[in-house]
Specification:
Shape: globular
Mean pLDDT: 84
Radius of gyration: 26 Å
Structural class: alpha+beta
Number of helices: 5
Helix content: 10-25%
CATH topology of the largest domain: Immunoglobulin-like
Distance between the termini: 75 Å
Order of helices and strands: HEEEEEEEEHEEEEEEEHHH
Number of strands: 15
Number of domains: 2
Low-confidence stretches: 1-22, 311-322, 353-367
């Protein structure tokens, strides 16, 4: 188990976590955020299949945003491929996210830094800031759950260099059995952190490892240029030729509430509000991306509302003919039940039933 964990951390260290030294800002931080933006996760049970395809999301409201460099949100340095679309919903148990962004197909098997990559981040601690990924001022030698208490952030990071399109990655029995948030198959990992230099897989950290760590995320990816929809296998890599125009789709889910007891997972409440951030890495001009060279949909937290079912029922009747038909069928079912009860009640009252006393019944049975 220790050997597997060491190998996993070594691989992870060569990817996103290991590039912390590149996270250096060129000047004073400034941010002009749009205070009106927010993402609503409506209640839509039984709608989403995690396969990387976006067809089942077509009626869900979207949040669209330009992608600006996370460390220098300057309009002149905007991602030129197009805007990112973010959608969210929940089914009462899990919360689902769809990230959609235009981009020419770029894929180098086994090299995450030459493939697109995405991350979601959520505050856990009350003092966790978007800027500096939690905002704890401690360094790598002094950051821990005591010195950085209150600055915890929850991070999901998906690098697709070893992930087959359309296949499910994230939490799996092997890594969860080892008690950490890794993913040895597709690098869809569950992390927590206090700042860019102090990030760890769930269940691991500077204070030692804990066997209760888990990867609670699952997800898949796809690109619209693929002409095979029956499914790929690893031998089909690179799946299509480089430079094909199209759109990337990244689809994720995790439970609203997890069994975390280490302050390493954000917890969501139906009817409540949280916050989130979205990051995107892309190998511009074929060049490998680096850890801090990502784009973001906003330079601050984005409000995330987990809507209760009652408020979404009205919206669902406006979503299309299928939703209207479902609502009408439900209404007819309720009316039918009420009518059946009424008819049964009238029939029972009009029926002439003969009653006998207990004494007579006992006598008839020889008691």
């Amino acid at each position: 188990m220790l050997l597997r964990l060491f190998l996993l951390l070594s691989v992870l260290g060569s990817s996103w976590i290991g590039r912390v030294n590149s996270h250096q800002e060129s000047g004073e931080w400034s941010c002009e955020t749009d205070e009106e933006i927010r993402i609503e996760a409506g209640f839509r049970p039984g709608l989403i299949t995690l396969d990387g395809h976006a067809d089942d999301w077509k009626d869900i409201d979207a949040f669209d945003s330009s992608l600006l460099p996370a460390l220098d949100p300057d309009d002149d340095k905007e991602y030129t491929g197009g805007k990112m679309t973010v959608k969210a919903l929940h089914d009462g148990n899990d919360v689902f996210f769809l990230l959609q962004v235009d981009g020419n197909y770029a894929y180098t098997k086994g090299d995450n830094h030459k493939c697109p990559s995405v991350a979601l981040m959520f505050p856990i601690g009350d003092e966790a800031t978007y800027h500096n990924m939690g905002g704890c001022k401690e360094g790598t030698d002094t950051c821990n759950k005591k010195t950085c208490k209150g600055h915890e952030v929850d991070i999901m990071h998906f690098s697709v260099g070893n992930a087959i399109p359309g296949r499910l990655y994230g939490g799996n029995p092997l890594d969860n059995g080892d008690g950490n948030g890794g993913d040895r198959f597709g690098h869809l990992v569950d992390l927590y952190g206090w700042n860019p230099h102090c990030r760890y897989l769930d269940g691991t950290g500077p204070s030692g490892n804990d066997s209760s760590g888990q990867n609670n995320w699952k997800g898949a990816w796809w690109h619209s240029s693929f002409n095979v929809h029956s499914g790929f296998v690893e031998e089909d890599s690179p799946y299509t030729s480089d430079g094909q125009k199209g759109t990337y789709f990244f689809e994720f889910s995790r439970p609203l509430r997890t069994t975390d007891r280490l302050q390493q997972d954000a917890q969501f409440t139906i009817g409540g509000s949280s916050k989130m951030a979205v990051a995107f890495w892309y190998p511009v001009d074929g060049n490998s991306w680096h850890g801090s060279g990502h784009y973001s949909v906003n330079c601050d937290w984005i409000p995330l509302d987990i809507s209760p079912g009652s408020s979404i029922l009205k919206a669902s009747t406006r979503g299309g003919s299928g939703d209207v038909a479902s609502a009408f069928a439900l209404l007819l079912s309720v009316l039918s039940i009420c009518l059946s009860v009424f008819v049964g009640y009238r029939a029972a009252r009009s029926r002439n039933v003969h009653y006998e006393t207990m004494a007579n019944l006992q006598g008839n049975n020889g008691l």
